[in-house]
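Q: What would this chain look like folded?
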Amino acid sequence: MTSSTTPGLARFNTLADDEATTALHEVCASAAWARAILSRRPYTTAEALLSASDAATAALTTQDLADAMAGHPPIGRPKPGDPTSSREQRGMAGATEELKAEMLELNLAYQERFGHVFLICATGATGEQMRDAVKSRIGNSPEQERGNVRTELGKINRIRLTRLVTEGE
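A: My prediction, written as structure tokens:
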């Protein structure tokens, strides 16, 4: 990211609040996170926006995290018609049927244990890497897993915000 305001960042800074809220909801489904990002506009640099995102993600309550996770489909099952989840989960697209079936089983076991979808920053990860991650994390305590979810959500939010303020440039 550059140290000066880019055209995409300038565009984001000048969106009406309702338009900016809609754009931010595509980044993260937590209303608390979006409010925190909106409250600090305008941003002078993309890095300032990403830092605000990190701070907002760190401040999310357990319920805010649940709201954020509700916006993410299970790994291996991107939302139909949603190019973002399809792009992010590209590593599962070429997976074998066996691996897809294993991920479905692991997703269900994880969801039963923790009460929410398995959240991982899937961008650039292979199906095998995602499978190995869920296998390694399913034995975590709920507290450990909340920390992992917060970290992964932060990575996802950074990638999506970067795309938001650089698209069309």
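The chain has a mean pLDDT of 90.
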